[in-house]
């Protein structure tokens, strides 16, 4: 999580607010290393800071939902 729990919060249900949800995920480990490639955006000094989230510019990140379901 990106924040500390409020005072008196002991469970996930107590921590979550109406705009949050929990989702089961399956994480698969492939035991391989991929060397990151520099993109032309990063080399040109673009102000977009989407990091490793494809399709997410700084303008639409605030209202995006997890899993790409906007």
TrEMBL record:
Coiled-coil blocks: none
MF terms in GO: catechol oxidase activity; tyrosinase activity
Entry annotated with the keyword Oxidoreductase: yes
Region feature (Disordered): 33-70
Key words of the record: Oxidoreductase
Gene3D superfamilies cross-referenced by the UniProt entry: Hemocyanin, C-terminal domain (2.60.40.1520)
EC id: 1.10.3.1, 1.14.18.1
UniProt biased composition (Low complexity): 37-59
Highest taxon in the source lineage: Eukaryota
Protein name: Pro-phenol oxidase 2
Organism: Triatoma infestans
Lineage: Eukaryota, Metazoa, Ecdysozoa, Arthropoda, Hexapoda
